[in-house]
């Protein structure tokens, strides 16, 4: 039997980060994806070349981010979101693609201060790597957070060093754990995302225990999708499937992520538990051409309710 309410204060069977942001801002919050024109240290040779083997940044950046001018990106992004989500009350700037603290510090400070000066922008979400955040930048973001919402979002992907090496991340899990702890100590909203499908099912379920130990403000989960023109997809096409554990059917992933959520500590808000890639980029798995994230989310929530599952039910 599923409870009528949960410790996070609503009837959803998981602790929704979107709902927590609504409570904070007094209405629906949308992220405006922006591009700062950065790269990554495992692309330009500082720690490696080729980038993460699963990554194709073109697959998740909106059309308007191809403008070099950041103000044009903001205006076009907000215009697009207002048409798509008319009830949106607030907007936060989301620097997602590549590594958004990997650059000249003065340029970074000027860029983010400029974005926050826009009257429609209420905050920042900065996607970055654990090995590209020093104390000076944390101090800068902590200062911004006194007047605006600021979230630092780390790509962690896995708690297992062999998996991180396999996908050419260029850092180990200790680096991720250390960066998250330092960021949280500065009082910053600290998020991380993890990728499921790079090692076995039980091993990935076991990883939730380590995720629970991190001082995170929010977490993202997403399933492995093989994107065209990535090293991982090329290996798969050549018949080398080592380290690739695709969820071939959406029902398989739905059941898996419910198990993850049941093991997750109940006070940790979940930003998402599935991701979507445009079909023109997605090579595998084939879940059908028409599926969309909201549809899968509804299915997962319905399964949780009908099956008596909720976030933290198996947490100990």
How many helices? 11
Total domain modules: 1
Q: From the alpha-carbon coordinates, what is the Rg to the nearest angstrom?
A: 19 Å
- What is the general shape? globular
Low-confidence parts: none
Q: Give the strand line-up of the largest sheet.
A: 1-2-3-4-5-6-8
Number of strands: 9
What is the name of the CATH topology? TIM Barrel
The helix/strand class is alpha/beta
Q: What is the helix content?
A: 25-40%
| Integer average pLDDT | 94
Proper CATH architecture: Alpha-Beta Barrel
How much strand content do the residues show? 15-25%
Spell the H/E element sequence: HEHEHEHEHHEHHEEHHEEH
Quick recap of the structure?
The protein is α/β, with parallel strands linked by helices.
Please give a structural write-up.
The chain has 316 residues and is α/β, with parallel strands linked by helices. It has one domain: TIM Barrel, CATH 3.20.20.70. 35% of the residues lie in helices and 16% in strands. It is built from 11 helices and 9 strands. The chain has helices at residues 17-25, 70-84, 105-116, 135-144, 161-166, 173-185, 201-206, 208-212, 231-237, 250-263, 293-307, and strands at 29-34, 90-95, 121-128, 149-157, 189-196, 218-223, 226-227, 270-272, 282-284. It has a 7-stranded parallel beta sheet with strand order 1-2-3-4-5-6-8, with helices on both faces. Helix 10 (250-263) packs across helix 11 (293-307). The longest helix is centred in the first third of the chain and has 15 residues, at 70-84. The protein is globular. 38% of the residues are buried. The model has no long low-confidence stretch (mean pLDDT 94). GO terms for molecular function: 4 iron, 4 sulfur cluster binding; catalytic activity; metal ion binding. Pfam families: Radical_SAM (PF04055), Radical_SAM_C (PF16199).
């Amino acid at each position: 039997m599923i409870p009528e309410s949960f410790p996070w204060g609503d009837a959803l069977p998981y602790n929704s980060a979107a709902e927590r942001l609504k409570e904070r801002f007094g209405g629906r919050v949308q992220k405006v994806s922006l591009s700062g024109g950065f790269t990554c240290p495992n692309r330009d040779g500082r720690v490696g070349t080729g980038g993460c083997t699963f990554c194709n940044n073109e697959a998740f950046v909106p059309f308007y981010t191809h403008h070099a001018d950041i103000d044009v990106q903001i205006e076009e992004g907000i215009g697009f979101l207002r048409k798509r989500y008319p009830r949106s009350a607030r907007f936060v700037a989301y620097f997602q693609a590549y590594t958004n603290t990997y650059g000249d510090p003065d340029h970074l400070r000027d860029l983010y201060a400029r974005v926050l000066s826009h009257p429609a922008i209420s905050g920042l979400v900065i996607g970055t790597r654990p090995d590209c955040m020093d104390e000076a930048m944390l101090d800068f973001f902590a200062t911004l957070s006194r007047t605006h919402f600021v979230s630092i979002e780390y790509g962690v992907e896995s708690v297992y060093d062999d998996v991180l090496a396999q996908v050419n991340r260029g850092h180990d899990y200790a680096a991720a754990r250390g960066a998250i702890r330092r960021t949280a100590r500065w009082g910053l909203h600290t998020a991380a995302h993890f990728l499921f499908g790079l090692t076995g099912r039980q091993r990935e379920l076991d990883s939730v225990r380590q995720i629970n130990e991190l001082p995170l403000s929010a977490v993202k989960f997403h399933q492995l999708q093989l994107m065209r023109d990535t090293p991982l997809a090329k290996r798969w096409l050549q018949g080398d499937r080592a380290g690739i554990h695709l969820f071939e059917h959406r029902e398989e992933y739905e059941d898996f992520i419910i198990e993850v959520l049941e093991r997750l500590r109940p006070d940790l808000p979940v930003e998402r538990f599935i991701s979507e890639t445009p079909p023109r980029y997605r090579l595998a798995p084939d879940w059908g051409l028409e599926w969309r994230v909201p549809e899968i989310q509804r299915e997962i929530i319905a399964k949780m309710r009908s099956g008596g599952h909720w976030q933290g039910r198996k947490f100990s």
